[in-house]
Amino acid sequence: MAKTILRRILIMLPQLILVSLLIFMLAQLMPGDPFYGNLNPNSDPATIERMRHAAGLDLPWYEQYIRWVEHIFQGDFGTSYTVNRGWSVTRVIGSRIWPTLSMGVIAVILTYLLAISQALLAARHENKWIDRALVVWNTLTSAVPSFVFYFVMMVLFVYLLPLFPSSGTGIEDGQSFIVNFFNNLRYAFLPALTIALFSTNSIFQYLRSNLLDQQAQDYVRTARAKGVSMKLVFRKHILRNAFLPIASGIGYSITGVLGGAIFAETIFGYPGIGALFVQALTGRDYTIITALMLLQGTLSLLGGLLSDIISAWVDPRIRVK
Amino acid sequence: MAEELLEARDVSVDFRIKGTYQTALAGVNLTIDRGQVLALVGESGSGKSTFAMSIMGLHNPELTKVTGSIQLNGEELIGLTEEQYDQYRGNSVGMIFQDPLSSLNPLMRIGEQIAEAITVHNGKAQSVSEHVLNLLTEVGIPDSDRVAKQYPHELSGGMRQRVMIAMALANEPDLIIADEPTTALDAVIQSQILDLIKKIQQKKGAGVLLITHNLDVVAEIADEVAVMYAGQIVEKAPVERLFNNPKHPYTRSLLRADPENVQAGGELYAIPGTVPSLSEMDHHKDLFLQRVPWLDQKLVDADVADTLTEIEPDHYVRGTAWQDFAFPDEQEIEGQS
């Protein structure tokens, strides 16, 4: 087990380097430089050149890359240009991470709870009306763009039936952690529930068909032939086997939480990482964009790692000897 | 007189396919004595496994209708509730399946899977793990404590089949059903497994229903053979008699199609066609005759009772077609003489 994980981490290192290189290249490809929009058009070209030199922008790209990586290792991602002008990027992201985390965790938990219970219900009543209804519902939610549902939820639970606040995170500077925590829950719950309600499809479909598929497997027949009742066979044999493919997605779901939810955060006016990304893009805040992309890339890699660990933990066949 | 263990009388199985019931097994009569190995042979689709599943009560009740009578130690099995059936599956009857890899739960340790067979009937006890190790040793697995902690994918095919056998034997069943137990194994392992089944059967005095399409397997361990075609028994006899003096055209064709029986330079006989699909089965006829192209159409279409005739002691054959049946090359020889 430890070997499997170690091997997986070693594979991750070159991937991480590749991701950072790609992101750096993309940033280099973007037209202009950080001084472009911020300088008086009448500035002396020599002054601009001096500033570029001071910032190291006249160095060859690989030296710039190495400097960039060095700074990152020191926790320095640069300074925000437009979103929170003058703040360090780490501070900007730090201020958004908690709301995103709280909403994301609730959303992931609710998504799995909803999807699993729907799948169990559907598989138990295969081809009955409840099964068909759940299949149609899940197909519908994945076919219609999610933001359509978000607006509907917004109208229903904020406007028509005002149970939840319309925007914000409920977090205030100077408040104690406990107060912020509980205030935030009220704000985070509606977007989280909304995300969960309409993103059950893939887990639902996978689990439902796995449950049906596993029931027809030979090992189920063997267990029945031993005299194990169907109920017990379901609990001890079928469930765990049916959950395998789901387990491999959980890692991505967990790390994906920190990536934020662009549509939900924007529509519900909930300023987390997703909303920050949109702001940074529209404001061309390059330092924030690159930092977020790097965060996103790292999270994807970590998600893969986590998924592999979970898979190896539940499935003995995957463990490397 | 041997003690009768299993008696199946007029067992029929109908599968519901698209709303209508279609007969897969039509009035099968078979008995197995204690200490006897009965081989049930026939090609794929002839209903062998369907019969085994009826004994185990493992057909899907919503899609299957099982009628007739199956008695084990004098107790009727057909009509038992699921709960009653659970008590006797794995307890009085143990079953060994064909593909030991897919037949074992990939996520459960070998020891746990065998232990489950014990605890489900006897409750949890401290002696269970010891019992598991004894079973593993009994089926010829060295190093049983290590194997008990392994997962199915870590074992070879032969070892997995030994595990299946250990599982089937866990509660010392009176009847062991082995459904193609050696099909997935290579020749050497195959005969090891057969030896093991035979050895255990003799030691415990259990009855064995061996389902196979491999006649060499039959010759190796069976006492009696029943030949099945399209859901009906067509011939039944003690093993030597069946091999030396086969009567029914199907039995004769099967033996002729066995590579072992080809003389040097001779051509291997292949039975033309396949077993008809369920919807095309008319069980009032001798269905195999459709696959004998040189036979008189009148004989093929003739109605045949589904009872067997005892043509000599313990040798039963269905219908009368066997009396006139000959392969084309045999007819020539007869003509010459």
From TrEMBL, chain A:
Membrane topology: Multi-pass membrane protein
Gene3D superfamilies, alphabetized: MetI-like
GO biological process: transmembrane transport
Keywords of the record: Cell membrane, Membrane, Transmembrane, Transmembrane helix, Transport
InterPro entries named in the record: BPD_transp_1_N, MetI-like, MetI-like_sf
GO cellular component, as recorded: plasma membrane
Locations listed in the record: Cell membrane
PANTHER family per UniProt: INNER MEMBRANE ABC TRANSPORTER, OLIGOPEPTIDE TRANSPORT SYSTEM PERMEASE PROTEIN APPB
Protein name: Oligopeptide transporter permease OppB
Protein's organism: Fructobacillus pseudoficulneus
Gene it is expressed from: oppB
TrEMBL record, chain B:
Entry keyword annotation includes Cell division: no
Gene: oppD
Pfam family for this entry, one: oligo_HPY
Protein name per its UniProtKB record: Nickel import system ATP-binding protein NikD
InterPro entries to which the protein is assigned, alphabetical: AAA+_ATPase, ABC_Ni/Peptide_Import, ABC_transporter-like_ATP-bd, ABC_transporter-like_CS, Oligopep_ABC_C, P-loop_NTPase
Binding partners and assembly: The complex is composed of two ATP-binding proteins (NikD and NikE), two transmembrane proteins (NikB and NikC) and a solute-binding protein (NikA).
Enzyme Commission numbers on file: 7.2.2.11
Molecular function terms, GO-annotated: ABC-type nickel transporter activity; ATP binding; ATP hydrolysis activity
Membrane topology, record value: Peripheral membrane protein
UniProt-listed SUPFAM superfamilies: P-loop containing nucleoside triphosphate hydrolases
